Design the sequence.
């Protein structure tokens, strides 16, 4: 294990999977957390291992973060793996797991609002807190995956945007609370991978992106890799959006 252990929540597919692959390329032993994408995560690690002559590149960790039991299970599994690997601590923690559904503000239920707050704020808060001693031991870093919705009125997404703004502020606050031992930053992807329900909306967004195209998961993973390597950066948000956030 060249560099140490990294944990990526929601790392089995889409952008999370690319972050896992990039961190493995960078030399990290990656704990790929999944809820349902177990086979994708197993394949990702098997492919990575095959490319490295059978070297172990990480482990799959399964937990449903919508329940307290699931969250505690992820914490316990992570501690057990760190101990089993005789790792000095946790080098990287990426809060990537997310939910993203469009719903008219007036019909959002309390249950849906709580689930968004749960996945985007409560889970990162409690998971970081539980892993803080391990992060400190490794002089580690934490990255919150947010978005470019801050200060904008994204139609039918108030439950999502409000909770992502909460995650962003949590990360900025922890950049202070966990210093000088642990660095904390955010990556804010723009239009990278459309959700199944937003193909039309996604195309209209890309028309406004100064670089003239949607981003790729690699673009996001490269920003994550950069923040992990940049040991004098903390409290920063990198917008990976092709210039969308400054478009007129
Ligand atoms: N896609 C974009 O263009 C875009 C734009 C802006 C921001 N972002 C942010 O970038 C990150 C990655 O985006 P993405 O589109 O790849 O994410 P995504 O597919 O919406 O979600 C990532 C993972 O979250 C996990 N997840 C959801 N509910 C969970 C639960 N209850 N317990 C445990 N895991 C749960 C799922 O894991 P399983 O598959 O294992 O169930 C899912 O694969 C997210 O934080 C997102 O908000 C993405």
Sequence:
């Amino acid at each position: 294990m060249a560099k140490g252990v990294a944990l990526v929540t929601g790392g089995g597919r889409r952008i999370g999977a690319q972050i896992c692959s990039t961190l493995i390329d960078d030399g990290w032993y990656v704990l790929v957390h999944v809820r349902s994408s177990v086979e994708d995560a197993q394949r990702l690690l098997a492919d990575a291992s095959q490319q490295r002559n059978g070297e172990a590149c990480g482990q799959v960790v399964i937990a449903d973060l919508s329940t307290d039991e699931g969250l505690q299970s992820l914490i316990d599994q992570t501690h057990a793996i760190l101990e089993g690997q005789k790792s000095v601590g946790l080098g990287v923690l990426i809060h990537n797991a997310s939910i993203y559904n469009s719903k008219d503000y007036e019909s959002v239920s309390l249950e849906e609002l709580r689930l968004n707050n749960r996945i985007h704020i409560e889970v990162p808060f409690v998971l970081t807190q539980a892993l803080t001693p391990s992060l400190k031991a490794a002089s580690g870093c934490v990255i919150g995956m947010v978005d470019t919705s801050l200060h904008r009125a994204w139609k039918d997404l108030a439950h999502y945007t409000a909770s992502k703004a909460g995650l962003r502020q949590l990360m900025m606050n922890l950049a202070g609370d966990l210093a000088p031992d642990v660095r904390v930053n955010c990556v804010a992807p723009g239009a990278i991978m459309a959700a199944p329900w937003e193909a039309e909306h996604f195309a209209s967004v890309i028309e406004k992106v100064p670089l003239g195209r949607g981003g790729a998961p690699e673009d996001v993973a490269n920003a994550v890799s950069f923040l992990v390597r940049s040991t004098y950066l903390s409290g920063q948000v990198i917008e990976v959006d092709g210039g969308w956030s400054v478009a007129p």
Remarks:
- The pocket of NAP is lined by residues 10, 12-16, 34-37, 64-66, 96-100, 119, 145, 147, 189, 191-193 (CB under 6 Å).
- Strands lie at 5-8, 29-34, 58-62, 90-95, 141-145, 183-189, 237-240.
- The chain has one domain: 5-240.
